[in-house]
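Quick log. Single chain, no ligands specified.
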Amino acid sequence: MGVVYLAFDSLLKRNVAIKSVLRPSGESQQVWDEAVQRLIREAQAAGSLHHPNIVGVYDILINGDSPSIVMEFVDGNTLVEIASPGSQIEPRTLIHVLRQCAGALDHGHSRGIVHRDIKPTNVMLDAEGSVRITDFGIAKHLNSTTDLTHGFALGTLEYMSPEQLDGKSVDRGSDQYSLAVMTYKLLTGCKVFEAQTIGAWCAMILSHDPPPASTRTSGIPLEVDPIFARAMAKTSSARYPSCTEFVLELERVMLGEHGRESVNDVAKSLARASPCVESSTAVEPLSAAKPDRRLPLAIIAVIAAMIVALGLWFGTRAQESDHASATKPDESSTSVNAVKPSPSAPNPPAIEEFSTSKDKLRSGESAELRWSVRDATYVSIRGLGDSLPVRGSRTVTPASSKSYLLEAAGPGGTVKRAVAIDVMAAPRPNPPRIEAFTASRPSIQSGESTVLQWNVSGAAEVSISGVGPVMPGQTSRPVCPTESKSYILTVSGPGGSVNRSVNVEVRILPGANVKLSQFGADPVSINSGETSVLRWQVVNASKVWIEPAIGDVEACGVLKVQPKETTKYQLSYQNDRGTLRSKPVIVTVH
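-> predicted structure:
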């Protein structure tokens, strides 16, 4: 059985949580060994991650049959305690929580850690409204070749992904599925699936689509339904690339661009109840299987022995280890003190100011963080650095919405405060415009030319199908098609691409002979590296081409060539009466 104790680190003057595994009477050795390994795995998984929204792990203690994790004490509530059964969380508050959950999970995924048990009881909010994800007991490293599940599904059925329930390999998409199930329940007040038997429930998770959230309660827009459907897809590859992308899409629909509330204001609105009770004993259980459970004296002795044996970590004097086997530790000498400080304890640090010049930014903009702290010997801001001065400022340019956590420690304890900055996406530039695109002569005789003319604005690139890219500033181009065709003008810019077409009709006299009016080169003699210009005009031809290496061309035109050696150019043309060839044009290269 797992139990968590509240303890006080007398060396660093802070509260910590100690999570232990107590061996029940009659527990088999194999089951007990696996429980111990899961606790060790939790310490290794959480301890390898450094993120403001993941509970911090300070140390792991191994003492006989009672291993323990020493970790950050979160003075707050779980989501279960914040949301009453069957009730809904206000959307802005929900998005505030989800942003942090998604960031923490994506951080773990980037380092190969999949949590595998995301649910409301494993998500806590501290006094500042900052999220901590806890309980990495069944976390899986993506590169690990071992697993304590032995092919069985571990987790909480209601929140399990189909692949996790089926005992298959899991990846980051499994945590996204669980996050979506938790979000669905917090938003609607209803479970995604529910059945009378476990077998029926499993079948629904594996084969049924989630009921649309908009049908479960009023006030939920229809647009959220496809978002949940994707995040809870039956295969991981069909879900969002990351948890953050799922939350951002949900935020866009739920709050819109102008309906977001400051995260600080949302955090202040979160109701919180004190999770711990002052005690006169050395350690206080935060959770146990039964509310009225009392620890036997023998177990208290084991815990006391474990803590005192490793008392150097907590600041215990070396000679105190002689009393480690006492039934009840002496409060005057043990390093794990009562939660209530003595009247003579020094005052805790005070954060006089921690603010931002702007709590909403556009992408690429900056804000100034300012802080002032007294009675502190150590100041840090997560994401900015450690050992900061007690008063100062720092310019930040966050790439996305971010919460900065200031931590001040001193002889009287540790205090924290968070400041959040919302980063809004930069407005999308307007697309380019095509003011006009016309042909000077929309109907021509074969062999004649027409001029394409255009007027565009906001364009970075302009091209015409069959003609190619046009030069900057160019607004017209003569063309001489061999047959009726549609020219498409495509204009691209930072805001996207637009296009427009214009049709040119080419009249070919039925039964008329094809006629070559012109085919020549100027000059016909060039030096190596110089160019010559080919000119031609053909009437009543349905197809015209030039060899070698030029291919199909229009009925009339001008083309620069730069042959590397003396080249003989041949123009061919055809209509329904046959194919003809011109006399060769020879360009001599010296």
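Residues 142-153, 267-344 have pLDDT under 50 and may be disordered.
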